[in-house]
Specification:
Mean pLDDT: 95
Distance between the termini: 40 Å
Structural class: mainly beta
Number of strands: 11
């Protein structure tokens, strides 16, 4: 099992920036992909960005050009730099890790709230 600790959420005005951080511990050798997801009120959880061990990234269309995901393979941490935030980015953000696509290695935690005011 992998344990995740997320941090960095908060309240920011539209156009502002926030950085989310996530640290993995436990049985981490199985981790291939590290990613950030979000769930807004009344909506399903969605992928925001993910990064594979070789550095390959993919982003949701809604955040391309504004968000940047990065990982430290030695420390098993993953960050999400969020710039030019919009009110529609308001959500609870979750970190999770996969062994291969669809196989998550950690339980979904409490996440971290990001609120963007207009």
């Amino acid at each position: 099992q992998v344990q995740l600790v997320e941090s960095g959420g908060g309240l920011v005005q539209a156009g502002g920036s926030l950085t989310l951080s996530c640290a993995a511990s436990g049985i981490i050798f199985s981790i291939s992909t590290m990613g950030w997801y979000r769930q807004a009120p009344g909506k399903e959880r969605e992928l925001v960005a993910r990064v594979i061990k070789d550095g390959t990234t993919n982003y949701a269309d809604s955040v391309k050009g504004r968000f940047t995901i990065s990982r430290d393979n030695a420390k098993y941490t993953v960050n999400l730099q969020m710039n030019s935030l919009k009110p529609e980015d308001t959500a609870v953000y979750y970190c999770n890790v996969e062994k291969f696509p669809g196989l998550f290695l950690a339980s979904w935690g409490q996440g971290t709230q990001v609120t963007v005011s207009s």
